[in-house]
Specification:
The structure holds two protein chains of two kinds. By secondary structure, chain A is α/β, with parallel strands linked by helices. Chain A contains five helices and five strands, in the order ααβαββαββα. Chain A has a single domain, classed as 3-Layer(aba) Sandwich (Rossmann fold). Chain B contains 15 helices and eleven strands. The longest helix of chain B is centred in the middle third of the chain and has 29 residues. The chains are: A alpha/beta, B alpha+beta. The interface between A and B is large, with 52 and 55 residues.
Chain lengths: 168, 455
């Protein structure tokens, strides 16, 4: 442990403030303002995977790494739909998952919004319609905004969330 | 003999049941009118999922199976519908009447059930875990999956080899390169060609980069599940940098579409510099993390999978190597010549699986340095010939097995067995001595894929 503290004193905190590009810096400011104006400072997102390849989930996890650190803008991924404002939906709405997605949506208190993430829920990914796929998601849920990409990169997800905040 | 896979395919009057062992492949024909086979699960417990899946897909009856519950088909799936049969061509299914699934459960005074999922508390894939609890002690766990079943096998039937590629690379995002390399090997077998060494090295380089990204993410997440968040900040920072490297090399953060037959130039100097920095960062991480006693108090002796059980359940990959099995598809001359060392430990607990990942990250960096080539090479793929082909690759999770039948230039039957399919069936063994609060830690230490498992 002593080595850790030595390095820490010499180099500072290595996971804090890594280089951030200018674009992200600007977005962050705008985002923070919008979150505080429209969601009283905290936007709670319930991420639901309805049959993705896990790349969208990996990119959402990346949003909390020191490069993006989404939480400091007041955006949280929450454990329960009952704590959420927004459902972020990835995946192709599989036959087996669709009833659970609809259940989760029901549990989100009003007012609520659904954002689709990546090509899958709008059937723009290379997957084709099979008996096990019930996408597009708009046939089952009211979709407010769509973030395209396969998968969308963290910066694109942030931009998408910003556009969503502007739209509502 | 290690069981690798067991699956069925439809012929004109028969079903062919193919059982792939480490040293041989056995085939058995059963008539379509009366498709009854005997179970292998008495000897190979992991055969049961293969057999239950076979029943759901084709309606093949496993006469003496102890578990005849549906696997892929869930509560609302229409009964008597066997979608992998050629005669089934529907792309829409109506939900049938809800028929409850009978979970494995232990009953008794004070014993209660805890149902977790399919939607979990974090940003992870859906799956269900059913615990039988005596207070905090886990008596039993049933892992129930296939919520993500997209019917990939059916989707790929009738596709040309070029059409299939973008789908195959998206079966499991974390293992995309491994899936692509497996598919590449099948294409090469069917065109009877060899890959130029420089191209082989480039692909192997990307596979190790994918492994590093996956392992670094886990090296952060495993301590995080024991409440040590600082490790996640560090691990996820390194993983992000590795992902950016993947993007710089392939144009995509997950390497989708990157394994083809055209070599690309790698900026050798920049990559070397990056790998040297990563070596330092990983060394620092190891120094730091190995010296946090409260963390190792959680890791050590938690989620033990004994060598005996690891063999019995035919586990593969990181899980198997942490339980004393020398199992790695990279055990071949090409890798050994480039500095591959098999990571091997015996304790089989969370801490051991963590150490295996750390060792593999370090070895992968070494391999990547040796795979770096200035030379660019390409291969013109000749026409493919029809036939039955199989390929293996060591993905970041473990041994990946893919089998494709090509008939008249299109895919007749596609089968893939993700390493997770084997390892998920051994997860319930790891719980026996632990409390339910250890479950996320144990689950994360295996870090298995749901998408690759469910298909």
């Amino acid at each position: 442990m002593i080595k850790f503290w030595n390095k820490r004193i010499k180099e500072g905190i290595s996971t804090e403030n890594p280089e951030i590009d200018k674009e992200l810096q600007l977005i962050r400011k705008e985002m923070k303002n919008l979150v505080s104006k429209k969601f009283a400072g905290s936007l709670a997102i319930r991420m639901v995977d309805s049959g993705s390849c896990n790349a969208c989930e990996a990119e959402c996890n990346a949003l909390s790494n020191p490069y993006y650190d989404l939480e400091r803008l007041g955006i949280y991924f929450v454990a329960s739909p009952r704590h959420a404002d927004v459902m972020l939906l990835s995946g192709v709405m599989t036959f087996n998952m669709t009833p659970h997605v609809l259940d989760a949506y029901k549990q989100i208190p009003e007012p609520k919004w659904v954002i689709t993430l990546g090509g899958c829920p709008v059937m723009e990914a290379p997957f084709e319609q099979t008996f096990a796929i019930k996408a597009p998601a708009e046939e089952h849920l009211p979709i407010t905004y769509h973030i395209p990409g396969c998968p969308p990169e963290p910066i694109e997800i942030i931009k998408g969330l910003l556009a969503f905040l502007k739209k509502i | 003999m290690r069981l690798i896979a067991r699956y069925a395919k439809e012929l004109s009057n028969h079903f062919e049941i193919i059982t792939v062992y480490e040293d041989e492949t056995q085939k058995e024909l059963v008539s379509k009118e009366d498709p009854v086979i005997k179970t292998l699960a008495k000897k190979y417990p992991a055969a049961i999922w293969f057999e239950r899946k076979m029943h759901d897909d084709f309606g093949i009856i496993i006469e003496d199976a102890f578990d005849k519950r549906p696997l892929v088909h869930q509560e609302r799936f229409p009964r008597g519908v066997y979608p992998l049969r050629k005669i089934f061509t529907q792309t829409q299914l109506e939900e049938a009447e809800y028929l409850p699934y009978k979970y494995e459960a232990i009953n008794g005074d004070g014993v209660f059930q805890v149902a977790v999922g399919p939607i979990h508390a974090g940003i992870i894939e859906p799956g269900h875990f059913q615990f039988s609890q005596a207070g905090e002690d886990m008596l039993h766990l049933e892992v129930r999956h296939f919520y993500k079943n997209r019917a990939i096998e059916k989707m790929l039937e009738g596709k040309t080899l070029a059409e299939a590629k973008p789908i195959i690379e998206r079966i499991s995002g974390n293992e995309s390169i491994a899936y692509q390399i497996c598919y590449r090997d099948i294409l090469l077998q069917s065109s009877k060609q060899e890959l130029p060494v420089a191209l082989k090295k480039y692909h192997a380089f990307l596979l190790e980069l994918e492994r590093i990204i996956h392992h670094l993410t886990d090296l952060g997440f495993i301590p995080n599940d024991a409440g040590f968040g600082a490790a996640l900040a560090y691990g996820s920072k390194l993983a992000e940098e590795a992902r950016r490297k993947m993007k710089a090399l392939t144009g995509h953060r997950f390497g989708f579409g990157s394994i083809d037959f055209e070599g690309k130039a790698i900026d050798v100097d920049a990559t070397k510099k990056y790998l040297e920095k990563l070596t330092e960062d990983v060394a620092f991480f190891e120094d730091w993390i190995m010296d946090v006693p409260s963390l190792w108090d959680r890791f050590d002796t938690t989620g033990v999978l004994s060598q005996q059980k690891a063999i019995k359940y035919n586990t593969v990959g990181v899980v198997a190597r942490a339980s004393g099995l020398s199992l790695d598809r990279r055990c071949q001359a090409f890798y050994f010549e480039n500095g591959f060392e098999l990571a091997n430990e015996v304790n089989g607990d969370v801490g051991t699986r963590f150490k295996i990942r750390l060792k593999e990250v370090k070895n992968s960096i070494q391999l990547m340095l040796n795979f770096l080539e200035e030379e660019e090479s390409y291969l013109e793929l000749q026409t493919t010939t029809d036939g039955e082909y199989q390929a293996f690759v060591e993905s970041s999770i473990g041994e990946l097995f893919m089998a494709i039948d090509i008939k008249e230039g299109v895919i007749e039957r596609f089968f893939v067995r993700d390493p997770s399919f084997m390892n998920w069936q051994a997860v319930h063994i790891m719980m026996k001595k632990d409390i339910i609060a250890d479950f996320p830690l144990i689950n994360k230490s295996c870090d298995l894929s749901y998408a690759g498992n469910d298909l």
